[in-house]
Amino acid sequence: MADVQVDVSEIHWLMEMFQTVDVGLVVVNCDYRIQVWNGFMESHSGLSPRQVRERYLFDLFPEIDEDWLRRKCDPVLLLKNRAFTIWEQRPYIFKFRNYRPITGSAEFMYQNSTIFPLSNTRGEVTHLCLIIYDVTDVAVSRLELESMNHRLHQLSKTDFLTQLHNRGSWENTLVQEYKRIQRYQHVSSLLMIDIDHFKRVNDDYGHAAGDEVIREIATLVKKNLRETDIAGRYGGEEFAVLLVDTPEAQALYFAERLRKLVDKTPVTYQDTVIQCSVSIGVAESWPQMENHRQWLERADKALYLSKANGRNQVTLASQMPVEPVAPGIS
């Protein structure tokens, strides 16, 4: 009689543990009809064991991807092996609201799960047990870390003042474009842009005003870019723009449009209106260039001519005078 009382007590303890354990426990038969539903599942779904018993799982929870879950569960039934799901692959099986105050930013409960077979006394698999683990804390921490790392990576490539690519990031892009051009014989164009008389702006209005001029002109550059174009801050008051798959004639149109826009858009700083202009050099890629540096130098020489010839103008590298050949060089 004492043994019977011990067994009853053990069953009572097991049932209490089953109801209060901080994981979800769900048992379904081979037709995916719910047989067992513990307190965790009741608390987060709002459905009692009586309400869900013998209900078809996928009718009761239509947010579950039936094909996906069956692909997970069928091998468990056939091979008697366990299966696992993790939140990185699929955020949840049951879409429960997140209730943890620490991870309150999460819209739902991130879940891992274990699926294992339940056999009868003859060793036949008749049911499946799904254990649902709340891993919201881990998931949110991981996602926040990845987001922060992504932001740091972006900041490492971005010029703080203009939010354009910084020189290193932009030049890396230019190197990749040079390699692509060499491989596929495409044509792209490179623009070097310099703010005219920028030292005078700093001297007359101060460096804070100079920063505002740089920011405003960077904004105008960004407004004129296509999705494939890449702009960067190359130096103090100098910008560089890579126009991918763009011949010289189209690059000239872009450059002239930008030049005119800057010329007619004064910058206002603390009630002071500052009139600005830019000089631009344009260089189309050519098959004989040996490296991206040659391309940069060619665009820079065109920019120098724009400044030497009076500023506020665009010079095409193709229209530059041919440089004299040094003696002894053919």
UniProtKB/TrEMBL annotation:
Keyword terms: Nucleotidyltransferase, Transferase
Catalytic activity: 2 GTP = 3',3'-c-di-GMP + 2 diphosphate
Cited SMART domains: GGDEF, PAS
Top-rank taxon, per record: Bacteria
InterPro entries: Diguanylate_Cyclase, GGDEF_dom, Nucleotide_cyclase, PAS, PAS-like_dom_sf, PAS_4, Rev_trsase/Diguanyl_cyclase
Class of enzymatic activity (EC top level): transferase
PROSITE patterns, A to Z: GGDEF (PS50887)
Pfam families: GGDEF, PAS_4
EC number: 2.7.7.65
MF annotations from Gene Ontology: diguanylate cyclase activity
Domain GGDEF: 186-319
CDD domains reported in the protein's UniProt record: GGDEF, PAS
PANTHER family, alphabetized: DIGUANYLATE CYCLASE DGCM-RELATED (PTHR45138:SF9), REGULATORY COMPONENTS OF SENSORY TRANSDUCTION SYSTEM (PTHR45138)
Name of the protein described by the UniProt record: diguanylate cyclase
